[in-house]
């Protein structure tokens, strides 16, 4: 039932420098990559290599020093509802209920009637398995639940692309595995493109169609690793020899990159 999504995102020769008190910091050196519509891309790299910077550039939250970024052939000039973001830290509004958090963006734009917006919220609450929590406040939810709501909120805006910056990084290992499976299930039922940042090798392989491995700072996409495992994927995949072999290969590479910054 997957619909086509032709929206291609092209990053071409992008350089990003930050002006800091101690001078210019080059976060990204000339880097290029193409993300196809409907693809699940994981962006893997050591801490500080520029993953968040690249993701924020794709999301239009950060300017570039050189190069170009186009979405659907059009240069990106700022944030857009076509590219929704989910961050690691919990970004829900504590004074709004779960349902109000999900409809927040739609309410701002007065998109549809309030009844229609509620229906949208409930559709996504159902998808993330939290229908019974519509009237609860964020403080009444666990970390995993909050991130599920953040995902539902991003999806409710119906973006073509979901940009996720270590969204499961603060969760315990068991919850994290469940979240990975839930995200795959959601993605498999949609036409969304996902770009998912992580420094966890197994997470990158388990989720991605392709893993973009970044070099140490200044970062660039240095290896594009296709993930050959069929979908739908279940957690047992992680125990197979093929998975373990790929995991070892990427772990070695990541270790080498990390050691350059150590
Ligand atoms: N707003 C900023 N001002 C100055 N330096 C920054 C800024 N954002 C990121 N950097 C620097 O750019 C590099 C890459 O950061 P980041 O993209 O956050 O890496 P990652 O997400 O891979 O850990 C780091 O050296 C960081 O200190
Ligand atoms: Mg980061």
Automatic annotation (TrEMBL):
* Annotated keywords: ATP-binding, Hydrolase, Nucleotide-binding, Transport
Reported EC number(s) for this entry are 3.6.3.36
Which Gene Ontology terms cover its molecular function? ATP binding; ATP hydrolysis activity
ABC transporter domain ranges (all copies): 9-241
Identify the Pfam families for this entry: ABC_tran
User: What InterPro entries does the record tag this protein with?
Assistant: AAA+_ATPase, ABC_transporter-like_ATP-bd, ABC_transporter-like_CS, ABC_transporter_ATP-bind, P-loop_NTPase
**Enzyme class name:** hydrolase
Q: Which SMART domains match?
A: AAA
ATP-binding found in the keyword field = yes
Q: Which domain of life is it from?
A: Bacteria
PROSITE patterns for this protein = ABC_TRANSPORTER_1 (PS00211), ABC_TRANSPORTER_2 (PS50893)
Q: Give yes or no: UniProt keyword Lipid metabolism.
A: no
**PANTHER family assigned:** ALIPHATIC SULFONATES IMPORT ATP-BINDING PROTEIN SSUB, TAURINE IMPORT ATP-BINDING PROTEIN-RELATED
Task: Return the protein name.
Answer: Nitrate/sulfonate/bicarbonate ABC transporter ATPase
What is the protein's species of origin? Bifidobacterium subtile
